[in-house]
Structures are given as structure tokens and as C-alpha cells.
Amino acid sequence: LFLYFQSPGLMVMLGGIATSAILLIVLYAAIQFKYLFLPAELKPGLFYNCAFWISAAAIVAVGIYGIVKLF
Question: pLDDT under 70 in the chain at which residues?
């Protein structure tokens, strides 16, 4: 890839954007699994729910921050 772009900074930025997008897709899949496909035997407790939503909010906040800083 470096032979085409010749810009390591651009490659790092593109990698960060791709990683952010994949992380948001994984978060979406986790929410879908938690609320649509989770068996009743695996129902999480209050602590897990709080930790899950704090983590989800942090991921979204970092994603939004990255988009704002990019433009």
C-alpha cells in the first residue's frame, strides 16, 4: 500500500477511520444480540447493563470526537 500512497500519515489516518467504523459496527451487533437474540438463561444483571451502556456511550463519544476532529 505504501508504494501507491507514499504517505505514512495518510495511511495511519485511513487505518484509524476504518477501525472506528468497524468498532461502531461491532457495537451495533452487540446491541442487536443483547436485545434480540440473547437467551433468557444469559440475561445480564444490573452491573453488566450499566457497564455495557457506559462502554457503548464511550465508544460513540470517541467516534463522534474522531469525526469532528477529522473535519
Answer: 1-2
